[in-house]
Design a protein that fits this description.
Rossmann fold; 6 helices
Length: about 170
């Protein structure tokens, strides 16, 4: 009798910064798999506020108490190559709106072409968290708005400190 195969899922993102919406998907995704790998990546098309090491630390700190087997891993490669290396059978993605679906649908199709052994699973964001996007959180913060309803308190403090120290959205990353 062979041991049961462990289901490993990958939840990729830049997490710049990590939002309550991300945490919602992480908590719910962790229930679907035996091990959830949070893949923190770079994205040249985005202007990061935080460096990769800062984002890694942020995600590790904020997911420390998430129930289940969760790990945080940096990657800078094709998502499907990363997922294969991690032994994943699924990619977990969050959806907020129709615009997300169109983009994610196209990405899922391309990823399936690259590796049809790994499925993409979409989770709808909690209704109260659907408007939250890292890009908008940064924009609100840069103009002095209160972002405490959108990010964990420690993340809010980091964002405010970064804006106060640099005077802009772009940090050291």
């Amino acid at each position: 009798m062979s041991a049961a195969k462990h289901r490993i899922g990958v939840y990729p993102g830049t997490f710049d910064p990590l939002t309550l919406g991300h945490l919602d998907i992480i908590r719910r995704g962790a229930k679907l798999v035996d091990h959830l790998v949070i893949g923190v990546t770079t994205n040249a098309s985005k202007s990061p506020m935080f460096s990769l090491p800062e984002r890694m630390e942020m995600v590790m700190r904020e997911t420390r108490d998430v129930p289940g087997n969760v790990s945080v891993v940096a990657f800078d490669s094709l998502l499907m190559d990363f997922a294969e290396r991690e032994g994943a059978s699924m990619i977990v993605r969050g959806l907020r709106a129709v615009a997300d679906f169109e983009y994610e649908y196209q990405m899922a199709g391309m990823n399936q072409q690259l590796n049809d052994r790994i499925e993409t699973v979409f989770l709808m964001a909690d209704v109260s968290l659907q408007p939250i996007a890292s890009r908008l959180v940064k924009e609100i913060a840069i103009y002095g708005g209160d972002i405490s309803r959108f990010v964990p308190h420690a993340v809010r403090d980091q964002v405010v400190e970064r804006i106060n120290s640099t005077g802009s959205l772009r940090g050291v990353g």
